[in-house]
Known about the structure:
The chain is of the alpha/beta class. It has helices spanning 8-20, 37-43, 65-78, 86-101, 107-115, 158-161; strands at 2-4, 28-30, 51-54, 120-121, 126-127, 143-148, 151-157. The strands form two sheets. Strands 1-2-3-6-7 form a five-stranded mixed β-sheet. Strands 4-5 form a two-stranded antiparallel ribbon. A hairpin with a 4-residue loop joins strand 4 (120-121) and strand 5 (126-127). It is elongated and about 60 Å long.
Amino acid sequence: MLFYGGYVAEAGPIRKQMTDAGLTKVIMVGGDGIQADDMITNGGPGAEGTIAVEPSAAITSSTSADAQTFVTDYKAKWGTEPAIYAGEGYDIAQMYIAAFKAGKTDRQSITDFVHGLNNFPGLTKDYTFQPNGELVADSVIDYIYQVKSGAWIVLGSTKDVIPA
C-alpha cells in the first residue's frame, strides 16, 4: 500500500509510473486531493482499486430528494455534475442565509448563530456545533471512495465503522 498525501495532478502520473514499473498489486491511498476523475484518466488501468478518504459526501449518489434536486439544478446551470464539497458548500451557504433571515448581520452575531446550530439539515448531513464552534462528532463523517470499473464509488463512511 502507498499513501499519497498530494494532489490529483501528480497522483495519476505516479500511479501510472507504478503500474509501468510492475507495482500493480500496490494500492494507492490518499485524501480528498486525489478523488477526481483526472486520477482515473491519468492513472490508467492501474488507478483501479485506488482509495480516497475525504469529509465530503457523494452528493451525486444521494437518494435524498433535496440532494437530487440540487444535482439536477447544478447540472442545468453549469453543464457538469457537482464536484466534491459542492453539497457542503451549499449547506454552509444555507447556514448564512438562515442567520441573515434571523436578523444576524454582523460577524459576532453570525458566529454566535452558527455556534448554536443543532441538527441543522444539510444536503449531505445534519450539522450540530459545539459552543466553541467545532462540529460535534456525529457531524464529522469521512467517506471512503474507491475506483471500481473506472469510476469512483462510495464504499462507506467512518460513521458506518466507527461507533459514536
